[in-house]
Amino acid sequence: MSDGVTVVTTRDALLDAAYDAALAGDWDRVRMIDVARAAGVSRQTLYYEFGSKDGLGEAVALREAARWIEGADAAVVGHEGSPSEAVAAGTQWTLEEAARNPLLKAVLTDDVGGLLPFITTRAEHLQAAAREHCAEHLSSHWPSIPADRVRLVADTVTRLQFSHLVLPGGRPEEVASDIAVLVDSLLGAQHEHA
Fold it and tell me: Which domain holds residue 17?
């Protein structure tokens, strides 16, 4: 096994242990030594990988975001007739998955005290990852859309999705439909089927 694989495996074990610890109780009371022990590594290894408990929490959130991006990508396949259709499919999947995700439910109900900021006031890394992915998808599938419009749509859609995760505003399909209308408005009709 190469060192790269070992590091990834160790990192994943630590993230799994942190995820389990978050679901089991109050994140504020989770101790780094307990996470390290559950992953079968030393506390020093944990600190080397993540630097701090906040770094660990952020890494757990980013890993969940990566999983969500993969799921949203899969949901978009077959719904790429227009940018708004693709965004709607991704948005609907995101909001439906939010209702099923045990960590997100625990965070939003503050059952794991201390993690809510990672999707609200400290969500800049998560939003940046989602925004960049959305912009990349739009640019690669609809290269005729001006870069400034791609950035505007990606930022607006991402912020709305995060807003609806934290404070749901309707059934996922309704929210997705409303966001699709907004995307069409932001891009104009000329890009609808470009």
Answer: 1-51
Query: Is there a single domain that holds both residue 141 and residue 164?
Result: yes
Low-confidence stretches of the chain (pLDDT < 50) are 1-2, 4-8, 191-194
Strand blocks (E) in 26-123:
none
Tokens 């998955």, residue?
A: 97
pLDDT digits (tens, 9 = 90+) for 54-89: 899 888 888 888 888 888 889 998 888 999 999 999
At 40, which CATH number?
1.10.10
174 and 129 part of one domain? yes
Q: How many domains does the chain fold into?
A: 2
> Between 147-166 and 83-100, two packed helices, what is the crossing angle to 10 degrees?
20
Cα torsion through 10, 13, 18, 19, rounded to 10: 140
